[in-house]
Amino acid sequence: MIYIIFVLGLIFGSFLNAFEWRFSQKIDSSGNRVKIGKNKSKNLSIIYGRSMCPNCKHELFSLDLTPVVSWLFLKGKCRYCGVRISAQYPFVEISTAFLFVFSFFFYKSTLHTIPNYLLFANLLILILGFIVLCLFDIKKYLLPSRIIYFLLITSFLLLLAVSLIESDLHLLFIRIMNSLFFGLIFYSIYKFSNGKWLGGGDVRLAFLLGLQLSSFSFIPLCLFLSSITGLIYILGSNYFTSKELKKMIPFGPFLMLSCLISIFFGKLLINWYLHLL
After folding, report:
1. What are phi and psi of 27, to 5 degrees?
2. For tag attachment on the chain, is the N or C end more exposed, with fewer CB atoms within 10 Å?
3. Does the global pTM surpass 0.70?
4. Mind giving me the DSSP string for the chain?
């Protein structure tokens, strides 16, 4: 079963790379949809478009599309134009696979009921969405609202289904309250700073993150972890590079990483902290 989950992670990771590139061709720097012709729209469709090299646009075949293996076999270069293929591709594929496997181990002992299967599915979908959002934020300082809204709606529906099956709406109520509280914190910062400290995408993301946290105590934990990881990134960038760090850094990846840490280890970290007091 673990091998199946790992391979599925590789496949979905490959899909994420294709989705991120195709989606980025359809939006401008602000995330707004741009007008493109019918033929280009069809070629960029994740459903109807054929896989192609981003540089030479040559159609790719199975030898070029096997996750990780193709990149290694082709020595990180396009087989047709020879242009180097970004290491993002195998990195995303491997990262997705390992996160899938870790998530499986996290839910493995409880995967004997439909509600837990739904929560597991929600986590996997969330991971996929987080990875795509991280790519956009790192590359373009952008968190596309359509992706966030999709994740919000999907999570809400899955959590609603869990609550209805268990005949307990308390779970959903806590998640909604966490979402509103987390989102309003970021919205207040956004309004107070006139959008200088946070972007609108970070505010929408905060609502999504709050919906994933099963306990109110995870909110301060998530905020603390995101601040610490962001600070480590800034200090590390200043130490290991001679260039000055850009004034604007993508904060979304740190928030999403902290959210996953809170989901996986939140109770353990909070209990450890309370034990120290």
Report:
1. -130, 160
2. C
3. yes
4. -HHHHHHHHHHHHHHHHHHHHHHHTTB-TTSPBPP--HHHHHHT-TTTPPPB-TTT-PBP-HHHHSTTHHHHHTTTB-TTT-PBPPTHHHHHHHHHHHHHHHHHHHHGGGTTSHHHHHHHHHHHHHHHHHHHHHHHHHHHS---HHHHHHHHHHHHHHHHHHHHHTT-THHHHHHHHHHHHHHHHHHHHHHHTTTSSS-HHHHHHHHHHHHH-SSTTHHHHHHHHHHHHHHHHHHHHHHH-SSPPPS----HHHHHHHHHHHHHHHHHHHHHHHHH-
Q: How do the domains of the chain map onto residue ranges? A: 1-110, 113-277
Mean pLDDT, range 17-33, rounded to an integer: 83
227 pLDDT higher than 80: yes
